[in-house]
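Milestone M4 deliverable, item 7.
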Amino acid sequence: MTVRNANTEGETERDEVRLRLDIAYDGTGFHGWARQRDSADGTPTRTVQATLEDALSTILRSPARLTVAGRTDAGVHATGQVAHLDVPRASLEQRSIDGRPENLVRRLAKFLPEDVRVTAVRKAHPLFDARFAALERSYVYRVTTNPAGALPTRRADTAVWPKPVDIERMQAAADLVVGLHDYAAFCKARPHATTVREVSEMRWVEASTSDEPELYEAHVSADAFCWNMVRALVASCLEVGEGRRDATWVGGLLGERQRSPEVRLAPARGLTLTGVTYPAERDYAERVRATRARRDAL
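Output delivered:
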């Protein structure tokens, strides 16, 4: 079947299949999601995108280019990342895949390092766009204030905060950032990029167990996030929780139009992208149009 490439102006028909990939990774050993230039000495920069694209290109015998739902920073993890790519039909008909995209899961497991996995592959609607069709991205931030530090088996995805915190104070600060705001004070600026976002949830949970005392989780969801935004919001709430700041300080930052030097970043290792939600297939085109139009207007 011939499908349309929905990523390009003046859509042209091509004999390709669009695939959706669900992805998980431990970000500890990666310099973030996005493919980067090699270092000055020629050493390849290890990123999730480059690792996946190289493996896919080898298996499919065709250049693979992924579009991702949300780029993650160096050290940030994912259990629910989503990406798409367009694949020539002939690439899926080779013997090892036999026309079944789901067979790529087992093939990729043999090619990929242990700290990244593609957990599912499926044919997607030609208008599915992992980035522009997304309705919401969700993250969880794990942090402990236990003087002993993080549990050794969870050290990779659990940050350590050096002082005790009050969860009610943290939630009071979190409540103030929910809604449609300009989060410039909490974001590292990117050229020609907006910092206006709509946060639908920021909820603190005490997740302590006998093995992990003094453990907290921040559950944060929004239509999208700008660079460093979640880590900045988390650190600000933690400062309120330890009594260094008042919740009104966080609310006041929402009126700023540039990054505030007062805002710290929580460590990257505590942050995990846990999910991305999409509309029904019939609404893909409208969602992509709306997202692109808003981006262009801003």
